[in-house]
Amino acid sequence: MTDSHALLHQAERQCQQRGVRFTPIRRRVLEMIADTPGSLKAYDLLDRLAAEHASARPPTVYRALEFLIDQGLVHRIESLNAYVACPCPEHAHGFQLLICRLCGRVEELHLDEVNAQLFRRARELGFCVERQTIELLGHCEACHGAAPAF
């Protein structure tokens, strides 16, 4: 779990510097994601948001998520179809996610050399990368003893 207060403050500064609107709904969606250990699915977000705002509908949540992803404040976990707050949105480069299958904990890595190798090889093959997602599923140190042996 990230420090949501610091993350929200940083998000406000970043949006102000970029000249984009950090609306109350966008702020609340980010706060809900940041306050959740692990990741959060869009419909879980919608349920929580609807409890506070009767007018909240799926497009409301998806638009907020799209904005937060575009601003680098949230990552979509493709394999889980869920979202997690970015603990360091100032890092503009690619990232990798370690996802614990048992407790749902998500750790973000910034192995720039991995990204550089991938992009270099893609260029060599004439491929233009638009987006990347690197997810490593397994179990965290805390769950190591509870993980089934393979």
Automatic annotation (TrEMBL):
The record's Gene3D superfamilies line, in alphabetical order, gives: 3.30.1490.190, Winged helix-like DNA-binding domain superfamily/Winged helix DNA-binding domain
Chief localization: cytoplasm
What's in the GO CC field? cytosol
Q: Where in the cell is it found?
A: Cytoplasm
Among the GO molecular function terms of this UniProt record, one is: DNA-binding transcription factor activity
Name one process (GO BP) from the record: negative regulation of DNA-templated transcription
Co-factor remark? Binds 1 zinc ion per subunit.
User: Pfam families under this entry?
Assistant: FUR
Keyword Protein biosynthesis part of the UniProt annotation = no
Q: Please list the residues that bind Zn(2+).
A: C100, C103, C140, C143
* Required co-factors: Zn(2+)
What are the record keywords, sorted? Cytoplasm, DNA-binding, Iron, Metal-binding, Repressor, Transcription, Transcription regulation, Zinc
* DNA-binding keyword on record: yes
SUPFAM superfamilies reported in the protein's UniProt record: Winged helix' DNA-binding domain
- Similarity section: Belongs to the Fur family.
> What's the subunit arrangement here?
Homodimer.
Protein name in UniProt: Ferric uptake regulation protein
